[in-house]
Structure prediction request, 98 residues.
Amino acid sequence: DPWPKTRHRERRLATPAFAAEIARTLRVPGGTVHVASDLPPVVASFARALAAAGLVAVPEAAPPAGPKSSFEQRYARGGTAYARFVREARERWGSGYR
Prediction:
């Protein structure tokens, strides 16, 4: 989310409304959302919104391995805050999950 300044708050993607949409579309148990930023307060704020939307934090989750862009590598050297959330299994209703 490239809007770290307080005055840009209304442009942020990491909002409670967006978190609710993510939770709504992650219908399959085990569906995962990865959140990373070089700004820990942004990750913490979005983590609270995802938890409030019904997703469950994975304790001590590490970022997925794999290729990183030069931009990600540059900011990772300064420290990257990371969180992972999953959709837990819910009651079955018919052929799908509710």
